[in-house]
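Box 3.1 A note on notation
Throughout this textbook, protein chains are presented in two layers. The first layer is the amino acid sequence; the second is a token string describing backbone geometry. Keep the layers aligned when reading.
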Amino acid sequence: MALVATYLDSVTMTTPPSSRRSRVLVALAVAAVVVQLAVPYWPVVTVEGPVSWTDKVVHLLVFAVPTYAVGRALGSVRAAVVAFALHAPVSELVQHFLLPGRSGDVWDAVVDLVGVGLAAAVLVVGTRLRRW
């Protein structure tokens, strides 16, 4: 874990975005976080789709998109990863213990963390490509 944290520290995004671009990134990050906070805590959620794993795809996207957006807006992969990696299990515990009609699922938390990891990988690779 220390190796991952050190690597994430070494790839802090150093190229500051333009002022207009920065405002757009912040607005997108805020919107993504609002959606991300609404979805896990909505009173009753029924996700139906053409396949049985649609719920897991929603979980993946609900954590990957805001992790990526916040990472870009803050210019810090580490801050985004830590925040959303902590929120993944917490959201499932809140659903299980505090929200009537909802239940926490360990596999949902795992998929949430996979989404955070994918977003982190995209941020790191993107940063490396932009430096090239």
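The mean pLDDT is 86. DSSP finds five helices and no strands in the chain.
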